[in-house]
């Protein structure tokens, strides 16, 4: 139940981050490209940018592990997302394919509704 409690008390900002992840995962599943080059380039960009971001927020020797994970994961997600959607008719981050757009929106909406339901039912 700790996971349910986590989602029940999730602040709005973190809910937005989870929706970003959901949107990304829907896109990855729909447009997956097994090209090792795409994923290795994304890992490389993640390492370079994540390290720079880590340096910019470091407060002494102790850093939050989840924050560090996000600082490296976000550049990976951005670079792989950009590579996956290239030439696929996306406008900004929105697919021109109505079905994919509806799936993405519905997945995020279901997540937010689930968090709201948990917030109402859990102490």
From TrEMBL:
Domain of life: Bacteria
Residue ranges crossing the lipid bilayer per the database entry: 12-32, 38-57, 69-86, 98-118
Protein name (record): Uncharacterized protein
Species in which this protein is naturally found: Roseateles paludis
Keywords: Membrane, Transmembrane, Transmembrane helix
């Amino acid at each position: 139940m700790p996971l349910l409690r986590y989602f029940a008390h999730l602040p709005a900002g973190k809910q937005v981050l989870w929706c970003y992840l959901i949107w990304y995962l829907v896109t990855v599943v729909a447009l997956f490209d097994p090209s090792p080059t795409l994923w290795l380039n994304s890992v490389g960009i993640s390492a370079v940018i994540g390290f720079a971001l880590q340096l910019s927020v470091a407060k002494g020797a102790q850093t939050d592990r989840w924050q560090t994970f996000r600082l490296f994961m976000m550049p990976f997600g951005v670079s792989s997302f950009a590579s996956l959607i290239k030439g696929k008719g996306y406008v900004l981050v929105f697919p021109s394919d109505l079905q994919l757009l509806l799936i993405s929106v519905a997945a995020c909406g279901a997540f937010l509704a689930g968090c709201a339901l948990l917030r109402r039912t859990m102490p």
